[in-house]
Amino acid sequence: MPTGFDIFRRIFCTLAGILSLALVAACTQAVATPPTYEAMLNTFVNDMAVKYQWDRKQLRTLLEQASYRQEIIDAMTKPAEAKPWHEYRAIFLTPERIRGGVEFWNANAATLERARVKYGVPPQIIVAIIGVETRYGANTGKHRVLDALTTLAFGYPPRSAFFRSELEQFLLLSREEALDPLSVKGSYAGALGKPQFIPSSYRRLAIDFDGDGRRNLWQSNADVIGSVANYFAQNHWKAGEAVAFQASGVTAAHQPLITAGRKPVPPASRLQQFQQEGIAKEQRLPAQTLVNLLSLEAEPGPEYWLTLHNFYVITRYNQSPLYAMAAYQLSEEILRLRGRPVDGAAAH
After folding, report:
1. Residue 68: which region, alpha, beta or left (left: phi > 0; alpha: psi -120 to 50)?
2. d(Cα 323, Cα 92) in Å, to the nearest integer?
3. Which residues contact 221 (CB under 8 A, 6 or more apart)?
4. DSSP annotation string for 5-72
5. Does residue 25 surpass a pLDDT of 70?
6. Where on the phi/psi map is residue 292: left (φ > 0), alpha (ψ -120 to 50), or beta?
7. Helix (H, G, I), strand (E, B) or coil at 109
8. In 10 A of CB 14, how many CB atoms?
9. H-helix or E-strand containing 269?
């Protein structure tokens, strides 16, 4: 007759066996690639061989060391930008991130001033971008970039063309900058370094701002600052101009005027129209200034802003108007804690 201990041991072993099978199944599911993955990888290898005379065997060997990661697909389908504004804002507008911005500014004040003079981008904007992206370099990403880009290029049909191009750019960047593609880590979308440049932006817009002959967006704060400033300058940042200001008195009649942070070009409304209707109290800008009306999902109701050209420029870094507003508001809080900039280029 089995003892109590024997019964307990049998139950324990049965549960352990079930758990082991579940773990094996979970692991198998995590590494299983979509049916088209292999064919797309082969096509990519052939294209790289033709386009860049890349050795097929070497490239194939490299890409076979990449791992398909289901969690990357999951993260891509649930971005933070899908949150309502009041939840999204709370991620970035924290006392720690604001203080961290002041500390980063103080530690790199001379470089930030040099970037402002050369590119026209105020320090608080540069600092805020780095703060939003990686908390000033504290979190540059935990995913192998090769894993992220192959997963998205060959296993995520909605944006496979984009990530296939970024994989191509990453391999070229690795060759040009002497990076080990198997060691580089970044975001789940393959973004790199403290400013989280995607590979194509790294190749096109990163600069050597410390003069050491390399463009190092991980260790060199000078390169990071100069590269972010260059990114904004190349997207036509207007030095000394405003970014956005809050609107009030918006009614249902104004809803057709609401945009999603698009570039304020004709037929965008002019500031004068909103002033006449009592929505904008801003008087420091020319009445003919082109502006867009933006609605954000706040608590307890909508929050309205009038956004200008420089707000649109921030969306060139990340297309979400929530991102642009978070970066702008963080820049203002950093500025408020540290003090006004020398060029008076704060947004209103």
Report:
1. beta
2. 9
3. 104, 107, 108, 111, 137, 194
4. HHHHHHHHHHHHHHHHHHHHHHHHHHHPPPTTHHHHHHHHHHHHHHHH---HHHHHHHHTT----HHH
5. no
6. beta
7. helix
8. 10
9. strand 269-270
| Residues contacting 211, CB < 8 A, separation 6+ | none
User: Which residues in 310-325 are b (16+ Cβ under 10 Å) and which e?
Assistant: bbbbbbbbbebbbbbb
267 upstream amide cis, omega within 30 of 0? yes
**If pLDDT is split at 50, 70 and 90, which confidence band does 281 have?**
confident
103 labelled catalytic: no
Specify the range with the lowest mean pLDDT, choosing from 3-17, 53-67, 76-90, 234-248.
3-17
State how far the Cα of 98 lies from the Cα of 76, in Å rounded to an integer.
27
Tell me how crowded residue 82 is: count the other CB atoms within 10 A of its CB: 11
Which one from 133, 166, 168, 332 is the annotated catalytic residue? 133
Contact 143, 72 (CB under 8 A): yes
The whole model's pTM is what? 0.86
Give the length of the chain.
348
Distance CA 119, CA 25 (A): 54
* DSSP one-letter string for 275-322: HHTTS----SS-TT-EEEEEEE--SSS-EEEEE-HHHHHHHTTSS-HH
Residue type, 196: Q
Residues 6+ apart with CB under 8 A from 192: 140, 141, 145, 184, 186, 198, 199, 202, 217, 218
pLDDT in tens, 168-221: 999 999 999 999 999 999 999 999 999 999 999 999 999 999 999 999 999 999
pLDDT at 348: 37
Q: Which residue has the tokens 């702008």?
A: 328
